Amino acid sequence: MTAAALLASARESGVTVRLDATGTLRVGGPTAALDCWVPQLREVKPALLELLTPHAPTTTMRCYRVLVAMGDSQPPKWATLVAPGCTPEDARHDAEGRFYGRVMEIHEHRTDGEVARHE
Fold this sequence. Notes:
By secondary structure, this protein is an alpha+beta fold. 35% of the residues lie in helices and 29% in strands. It folds into two domains: 3-52, no CATH class; 61-118. It has a four-stranded antiparallel β-sheet, with helices on one face. Strands 1-2 form a two-stranded antiparallel ribbon. Strand 5 and strand 6 form a beta hairpin.
């Protein structure tokens, strides 16, 4: 499994992986998830560092519409997520955290007028 695939799977389990200001890899999350994922993430640490290290400043502003399940027999509602330089995968991860895993759909509004749906 690639570093990117491992990172995505670990994030789905609630593990957070980031670089701090000094470039040190920081990992957090539920103990059980950490016990499962940290050994695997250590094996690909150089690739994770490469993957998470910003290589060039990005100024791309991205806007996502997120369909959120409301529960309690209420209909889902659309929310807007403004995410500068954020990939669709990062936007979904951020939205899942903000809306406690209740994200049903996410759509990227692009500057070319197209709307891209991300599952």
